[in-house]
Write a structure and sequence with these properties.
Keywords: ATP-binding, Cell membrane, Ion transport, Iron, Iron transport, Membrane, Nucleotide-binding, Transport. The chain is 33% helix and 26% strand. By secondary structure, the protein is of the alpha/beta class. The protein folds into 2 domains: 249 residues, 3-Layer(aba) Sandwich (Rossmann fold); 68 residues, no CATH class. A hairpin with a 7-residue loop joins strand 9 and strand 10. Helix 5 packs across helix 6. The protein binds adenosine-5'-triphosphate.
C-alpha cells in the first residue's frame, strides 16, 4: 500500500450527509460521504438520475448546508469561510435557471472578476485581460456581444464556463457542463477542462452522464448509487471491478466490452483484418446478429489497402465495397 500525500488535497469531504431540511424530518439524499479532490485532478461524478449529484455539488459549493459532516477547502471548514472568500477559492457552474437579465455574454463573463474587485469600481487591465482570455479559451468570442437571452442553450452553457474560467479559482465545480452541447463542443469542453488541470493545477469536478467521455478523460470517477456509499476510484478499475455496472444497474449494455448486448442469431463468421477497419466490421457484423468465431465456413477478410473492401470466402469468393453490401450478402446466405 502506498501512503497518500495529504498536501495533494484541494478539497475534502468528511462524514458528510446531504439532503433537505423539511418540516419534521430531514430528507437524507446521500450520507457517509468521505471523498478527496486532489490538486490538478479532473474528477467525473456519475450516477443515475435523482441519486443526489447536484445536491452534493451544491453542498460542496456552500449553496446549501450539509445535514451533517464537513466540507474542507484549502484546509478550512467551508462553514467558516465568507461567501466573498469562498468565491476566490471555488467556482460553480450550474446550468439551470440562469437569469442574466439584459446582459451581454461578455458582461456575464466579467461577473467572474467581481470577487477580485474589492472596493474598486472598475475592472483593472488584468481583469480585462482575464475576461478576454476566458472568452478565447471557452471559444465564445463569436457571440460574446450578444445579449444572454439571445444565446442558444449550448452557447449559454459555454458562456457560463467562460465566466467560471474568468473567476480563476483553484477548484471548479460544474454540474453537467456538456448537457446541451453537440459532439464537437462536448469534446472541446472536456479537453479544455482536462488541459486546465494539467497546465494550471486546478481541481475540476464535473457531474456528468457521459460515461464515454468520462472513461476517456477523467483522472478519477466518483460514483453515487442508490443505497451504496459514494465510491471513488480510477476509471478503468471501476469498469473492471464491476463498480459501474453495480451503481447504474446496467441493463442491455456490456461495459467491459463497451458494447450494447447483442442478440446472436446463431450465425457464425470468421474475421481477419486489422486496425479500426476491423473494429467497425466487427461492430456491423455483431449489430446484425453475427457471431465472430473461428469455427465457421464463412471467412471474411477486411482488405484495408487503397480501396477498402471485404472478401467473403465461402464456396466462391465474393467481394463487397461497403459494409451494407456485406451484411446484405450474408443475409441471403443459408447458415
Ligand atoms: N429542493 C428540494 N427539496 C426536496 N427534495 C429535493 C430538492 N431538490 C432535489 N430534491 C430531491 O433530491 C434527490 C436528488 O436530486 P439531485 O438533483 O441531487 O439528483 P441528481 O443525481 O443530480 O439527478 P440528475 O442526474 O437527474 O440531475 C431527488 O430525489 C430530488 O427529487
Amino acid at each position: 500500500m502506498i501512503e497518500e500525500d495529504h498536501n495533494d488535497i484541494a478539497l475534502s469531504i468528511r462524514d458528510l450527509a446531504v439532503g433537505y431540511r423539511t418540516g419534521k424530518q430531514d430528507l437524507v439524499i446521500l450520507k457517509n460521504i468521505n471523498l478527496d479532490l486532489k490538486h490538478g485532478e479532473l474528477v467525473c461524478f456519475m450516477g443515475p438520475n435523482g441519486v443526489g449529484k447536484s445536491t452534493l455539488l451544491r453542498t460542496m459549493a456552500g449553496v446549501q448546508n450539509p445535514l451533517s459532516g464537513k466540507v474542507i477547502i484549502d484546509h478550512m471548514d467551508l462553514s467558516a469561510i465568507s461567501t466573498a472568500e469562498l468565491s476566490t477559492k471555488m467556482s460553480l457552474v450550474l446550468t439551470d435557471g440562469i437569469n442574466a437579465g439584459n446582459m451581454t455574454g461578455r458582461e456575464l463573463v466579467g461577473l467572474g472578476r467581481y470577487p477580485y474587485l474589492g472596493w474598486r469600481v472598475d475592472f483593472s487591465n488584468n481583469d480585462l485581460q482575464k475576461i478576454e482570455e476566458s472568452i478565447a479559451l471557452a471559444r465564445v468570442s463569436a457571440y460574446a456581444d450578444k445579449k444572454v437571452h439571445e444565446l442558444s442553450d449550448g452557447q449559454l452553457q459555454k458562456m457560463m464556463i467562460a465566466r467560471a474560467l474568468c473567476q480563476d479559482t483553484p477548484v471548479m465545480i460544474l454540474d453537467e457542463p456538456t448537457a446541451h452541447l453537440d459532439l464537437n463542443n462536448r469534446v472541446a469542453i472536456i479537453n479544455l477542462l482536462k488541459d486546465l488541470t494539467r497546465k494550471t493545477g486546478k481541481s475540476i469536478l464535473i457531474a456528468t452522464h457521459e460515461l464515454d467521455l468520462a472513461l476517456q478523460s477523467a483522472d478519477r470517477l466518483w460514483l453515487a448509487g442508490h443505497h451504496v456509499p459514494v465510491l471513488s476510484g480510477f476509471p478503468e478499475d471501476m469498469v473492471l471491478n464491476g463498480a459501474i455496472d453495480k451503481v447504474f444497474e446496467l441493463k442491455g449494455f456490456d461495459l467491459r466490452t463497451g458494447q450494447l448486448k447483442k442478440k446472436s442469431l446463431g450465425k457464425k463468421v470468421s474475421l481477419q483484418g486489422s486496425g479500426y477497419q476491423l473494429l467497425w466490421t466487427k461492430n456491423a457484423l455483431e449489430r446484425n446478429g453475427y457471431e465472430i468465431s473461428n469455427e465457421s465456413e464463412y471467412g471474411i477478410v477486411v482488405n484495408a489497402s487503397k480501396n477498402l473492401s471485404w472478401e467473403v470466402k465461402h464456396k466462391g469468393n465474393v467481394v463487397t465495397n461497403t459494409l451494407e453490401e456485406l451484411i446484405n450478402y450474408l443475409n441471403t446466405q443459408q447458415f
